[in-house]
Design goal:
- This protein is mainly α and 92 residues long.
- The chain has a single domain, classed as Non-ribosomal Peptide Synthetase Peptidyl Carrier Protein, Chain A (Orthogonal Bundle).
- This is Phosphopantetheine-binding protein.
- Keywords: Phosphopantetheine, Phosphoprotein.
- InterPro entries: ACP-like_sf, PP-bd_ACP, Ppantetheine_attach_site.
Length: 92
């Protein structure tokens, strides 16, 4: 499990008040079937934005966009890589 996935799982469990161990939250579990509604989805997005210091694109501010943890983690990873590419390199 990657550091991003571990942190996203923690955020989901804490924000959605899920009473399951982190390791039982499978990356393919359908988040809406687990009881996540749009309000909880936005709370999770805000918590992820705060934790990883980036903002979701407006087009992705919808719980339906991310059906499972895998999709959410992939988005976070891609955003972080995008930010890293935009940062000026040091030393050259």
């Amino acid at each position: 499990m990657t550091e991003i996935e571990e942190e996203v799982r923690r955020i989901i469990i804490e924000t959605a008040n899920l009473n399951i161990p982190r390791h039982e939250l499978n990356e393919e579990n359908d988040l809406t079937q687990m009881g996540l509604d749009s309000i909880t989805g936005i709370k999770i997005i805000v918590a992820i934005e705060n934790q990883f210091d980036f903002e979701f694109d407006d087009s992705n501010l919808n719980v339906e966009t991310f059906k499972n943890i895998k999709q959410l983690c992939t988005y976070v990873q891609n955003k972080l890589e995008e930010i890293d590419r935009k940062l000026p390199s040091s030393g050259n």
